[in-house]
């Protein structure tokens, strides 16, 4: 087959992520000489219904090596996709799904399949001679996402120093993506100075947010508001707060244990606490407010707060179209977090977004806590017109590489660039029922 876009070469190797752990990198080469490369990220606070990340087990690197996933790419997957067109992403991804043969990539590993799925997209874009976001989204791909940027990191990303995982800011009043970053840079800097002044600056957490030396979760919220003010912004009007509670990490069977404050809440107790925070602080978005096994409470919270704030399903939805449809039927969440490695192919992740969008949900393309220099998700956020992007804090190059890539794209789009303001927040499609 000598089609210019036919896959001629597939090669994977083991590389290292931002936590110093092994991960999979794949390269896909085409008949016309185009080459694409992609690296796979890894989560720490993973949803139980995510596609399986294949790890070798045993003693080496704490069992986290990925030599089997690498071998699966170089052997079985390579043989199956050689000659396939890289620019028919749906057919290529379907081939990967069929080849694996399990509902959750348990045989080949979602880290193996995603590396190939993403590398093929990069190769196809190169072959077409356009940046990936243009290849994916065409001439309509002009919407720069509203970034959710972490200021304090907590939960599983900071040794559970505080229970809440992400204390983030969003800048819906900024005039451009570039300006949103400028504002965030000042907030991040002032948050660091504030911690220093309190004698509480102890480095950064996994995603680069300041290490959360606080006596309570609420103290982190107070510090965040103070940092926004010291940076010279009006909390709420200019710079607002987004939280990832990541409640599956401290809640099971309807019981939630706030380790820092040494108290246990039931679902309604946690809902009450979050509603109080929404009243008191300029919060515009809350992710995983309840645990993944507490769908009814998730829906109750959505009914109570979904008209006022964006309610994001991460562990609840794991970038799965069927789970998005189920949540919509139950009235849970009004936005979906989109992490390609939760599914293992680009096409399945896009299907989750298409389902969500058609049901009135907002979308946030997201990195993982274990990241690399890969910038694919930035192109997905713009190409898919998701409207929002979450990649961690405003420090560490595995985060900055993504913000910087979006800056380049905004500059390249010039006058055609649009910036997603507050209008991108989801509204609960079933609220008020
Ligand atoms: P993870 O965290 O990558 O560790 O799952 C990110 C998130 O929960 O959004
Ligand atoms: Zn999350």
Structure characterization notes:
The protein is of the alpha/beta class and 433 residues long. It is 37% helix and 19% strand. It has helices at residues 67-81, 89-100, 110-128, 132-137, 177-197, 217-230, 267-280, 295-305, 321-330, 346-358, 376-383, 397-413, and strands spanning 7-16, 22-30, 35-39, 143-144, 146-153, 166-170, 240-244, 251-252, 255-258, 263-266, 283-287, 310-313, 335-338, 362-366, 387-393, 418-419. It has an 8-stranded mixed beta barrel with strand order 5-6-7-11-12-13-14-15, surrounded by 6 helices. It is globular, with a radius of gyration of 21 Å. 57% of the residues are buried.
List its traits:
single chain, 433 residues, alpha/beta, 12 helices, binds 2-phosphoglycolic acid
**Biggest sheet details:** 8 strands, mixed, barrel
- DSSP, total strands: 16
Structural class: alpha/beta
Give the number of helices: 12
Q: Which bin fits the share of residues in helices?
A: 25-40%
